């Protein structure tokens, strides 16, 4: 009896830990504890972004956005985008650019497909007070937010990429003052409306289902930097699914995007 109880308890703990890992919007409690009792955690927002609907039955308009945070390029996704001629907006960090010159060359060879935008210098959340987000330390000051944004843009220009007009910070979370600072630097801030791959931690089947069910006017976020994760397989399949459904793919620069939390107006 005892052994059964212990085994059940262990199973429960395993399941909840795995679930917490896979769903970034429900981080473990330890990740949101403020670093010092005197400094309350800042109010963070995770802005939404939408594009104008096509309102044409059978031709939903969808903007695919991909984050290239750190690590390698996911060839399963990249090769599908190129082969199927599917346009997309890719958010790159300076760190990722440095490690993936071959993928950067593919982007630059296909300017009709790829809009490249700024995901920051070191993949540090653009929050101007000290806190932890999913265990990642925030920039922590307005100066550090500015450095993250400017450092990302400088690396892009140095790699031969046109100067970016959009910024998306690591974790896609911000405090409102950081949003104001980044807007004052001339950027729009890219939220999203469909979380396609749960931070690249979801399985292939659920990822494919989430992305393939994008509706008219949606902006999908997923990742192009985790070639060993199952999610990327689902992303690649969903691209083909969406194309087969007659989806009209646009990039953020192609349409009048509308974000909340003062991210675009
Ligand atoms: Zn990222």
Write up this protein.
This protein is α/β, with parallel strands linked by helices. The protein has one domain: Glycoside hydrolase/deacetylase (TIM Barrel, Alpha-Beta Barrel), CATH 3.20.20. 35% of the residues lie in helices and 17% in strands. The protein is built from eight helices and 14 strands. It has helices spanning 2-22, 75-83, 94-99, 101-109, 142-158, 176-184, 204-212, 231-244, and strands at residues 44-45, 49-50, 61-68, 88-92, 114-118, 132-133, 136-137, 166-167, 174-175, 188-189, 194-195, 218-223, 248-250, 258-259. Strands 3, 4, 5, 11, 12 and 13 form a six-stranded parallel β-sheet that branches. Strands 1-9 form a two-stranded antiparallel sheet. A hairpin with a 2-residue loop joins strand 6 (132-133) and strand 7 (136-137). Helix 7 runs parallel beside helix 8 (231-244). The longest helix is centred in the N-terminal third of the chain and has 21 residues, at 2-22. The chain binds zinc ion. Zinc ion binds at residues 67, 69, 119, 123, 170. One of its GO terms (molecular function) is hydrolase activity, acting on carbon-nitrogen (but not peptide) bonds. This is Chitooligosaccharide deacetylase. Residues 60-265 form the NodB homology domain. Keywords: Signal. Is involved in generating a small heat-stable compound (Nod), an acylated oligomer of N-acetylglucosamine, that stimulates mitosis in various plant protoplasts.
């Amino acid at each position: 009896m005892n052994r059964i109880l212990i085994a059940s308890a262990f199973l429960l703990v395993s399941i909840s830990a795995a679930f917490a890992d896979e769903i970034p919007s429900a981080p473990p409690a330890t990740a949101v504890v403020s670093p010092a009792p005197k400094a309350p955690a800042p109010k963070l927002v995770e802005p939404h972004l939408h594009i104008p609907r096509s309102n044409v039955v059978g031709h939903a308009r969808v903007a695919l956005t991909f984050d290239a945070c750190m690590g390698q390029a996911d060839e399963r996704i990249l090769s599908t985008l190129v082969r199927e001629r599917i346009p997309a907006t890719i958010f790159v960090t300076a760190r990722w650019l440095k490690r993936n010159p071959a993928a950067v060359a593919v982007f630059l060879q296909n300017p009709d497909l790829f809009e490249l935008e700024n995901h920051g210098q070191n993949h540090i959340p653009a929050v101007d007070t000290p806190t932890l987000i999913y265990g990642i330390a925030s920039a922590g000051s307005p100066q550090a937010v500015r450095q993250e944004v400017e450092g990302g843009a400088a690396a892009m220009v140095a790699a031969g990429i046109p100067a970016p007009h959009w910024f998306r910070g690591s974790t896609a979370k911000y405090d409102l003052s950081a949003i104001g600072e980044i807007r004052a630097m001339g950027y729009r801030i890219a939220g999203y409306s469909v979380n396609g791959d749960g931070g690249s931690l979801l399985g292939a089947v659920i990822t494919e289902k989430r992305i393939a069910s994008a509706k008219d006017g949606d902006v999908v976020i997923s990742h192009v930097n985790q070639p060993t994760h199952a999610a990327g397989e689902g992303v690649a399949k969903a691209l083909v699914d969406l194309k087969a459904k007659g989806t009209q793919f646009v990039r953020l620069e192609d349409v009048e995007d509308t974000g909340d939390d003062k991210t675009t107006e």
